[in-house]
Amino acid sequence: MSAALAIDVRGMTKRFGKRTVVDDVDLAVATGEIVGFLGPNGSGKTTTIRMICGLLRPDAGEGTVLGLDVRTQSAEIKRQVGYMTQRFSFYEDLTIAENLTFVARLYELDPVDEAVAKTLDGLGLTSRKDQLAGTLSGGWKQRLALAACIMHQPKLLLLDEPTAGVDPKARREFWDEIHRLAGDGLTVLVSTHYMDEAERCHRIGYIAYGRMLATGTVEEVVRGSGLVTFVVHGALKPAQIRSLEATDGVEQVAPFGATLHVVGTDRGKLEAALEPLKREAGIKVEPGETSLEDVFIKFMTGAQERAA
Ligand SMILES: Nc1ncnc2c1ncn2[C@@H]1O[C@H](COP(=O)(O)OP(=O)(O)O)[C@@H](O)[C@H]1O
Ligand SMILES: [Mg+2]
After folding, report:
1. pTM exceeds cut of 0.70
2. Spacing, Cα 286 to ligand 1 middle (Å)
3. Could you tell which of 14, 45, 47 is best to mutate to test the pocket of ligand 1, judged by most ligand atoms within 8 Å of the CB?
4. Looking at the keywords, is Nucleotide-binding present (predicted)?
5. When you count CB atoms within 10 A of the terminal residue's CB, does the N or C end of the chain come out lower?
């Protein structure tokens, strides 16, 4: 076993009927690392997470989670992992304390009252413990859910789109908390749709149609995409944008505020495509930075074309 890796799995594969929804996925996550798991809906994020935490048996693949065999030691893995499911929610008509008590009993924490009191205190919710969970704001609900997932002091936290529908300030606070936990040695694998959240991870993995298309730091993934970006300043006419989109070498044209990002793989072709615009009055073309969004759109389009 590799102690430095909290997750070390290879070839993870899951089929539902004839469909392969997770296809030969490798994933390595170091202890204390925060890894973001990105990809369009239906690409296999939840299924992968469920295989890692021992809830779903892989059809193929091997490796370890927390040093335990992912194929044969799922019961032990489950005990040491905190898993926050997609659209996780509490019993809205139970109080905050009652909800936490329920979770504490589920994990057979002993004594229950002490575990609950400690969690309430950590959240700063002791004075509100008798409030119904349903009356909490979205941000507080997320914090409570997170606290419940780590009540049994797991070593690995699996979060499945934990911040979907949460406002930006609450998301920021949620991420501050994740970083605090990781600083204390907890390993975190978190699926998300948000680009800004990807930037907050130590590393990311991008999955589409069951295939892991890229892993690495955000910078590595952007560089590895081979995309080149130019930024066009100035007002282009709709016809000019359409003709740019139709030009060979131009893969993406996307407005970013008052500018236009023009993205492609072949620098020479891209420069040639932009050459006529450079001569226009009031238009300026300069090299830009490729955004993670540009990269993901390329991945998604490519995966869609292969699947079609
Ligand atoms: N229990 C299941 N039975 C059949 N198909 C499933 C089941 N769970 C998930 N799927 C299918 O597997 C694919 C991947 O789903 P999922 O892992 O939930 O993707 P994501 O979390 O990335 O949105 C989807 O097409 C989904 O419909
Ligand atoms: Mg999902």
Report:
1. yes
2. 42
3. 47
4. yes
5. C
Contact 45 CB / ligand 1 (< 6 Å): yes
| Domain span at 215 | 5-80+154-222
Pairing of strands 203-208, 34-38: parallel
39 lines ligand 1 (CB under 6 A): yes
Distances from the Cα of 202 to the Cα of 80, 141, 154, 188, 292, angstroms = 22, 25, 20, 10, 14
Q: Ligand 1 pocket: which of 15, 21, 43 to mutate (most atoms <8 Å of CB)?
A: 21
46 and 192 share one domain: yes
Query: Tens digit of pLDDT per residue, the chain (308 long)?
Result: 445 899 999 999 999 999 999 999 999 999 999 999 999 999 999 999 999 999 999 999 999 999 999 999 999 999 999 999 888 778 999 999 999 999 999 999 999 999 999 999 988 889 999 999 999 888 888 889 999 999 999 999 999 999 888 888 889 999 999 999 999 999 999 999 888 899 999 999 999 999 999 999 999 999 999 999 999 999 889 999 999 999 999 999 999 888 999 999 999 999 999 999 999 989 999 999 999 999 999 998 887 887 77
Q: Do 66 and 171 belong to one domain? A: yes
d(CA 190, CA 128): 29
Both 129 and 24 in a single domain? no
With contact defined as beta carbons under 8 Å apart, do 43 and 210 qualify? yes
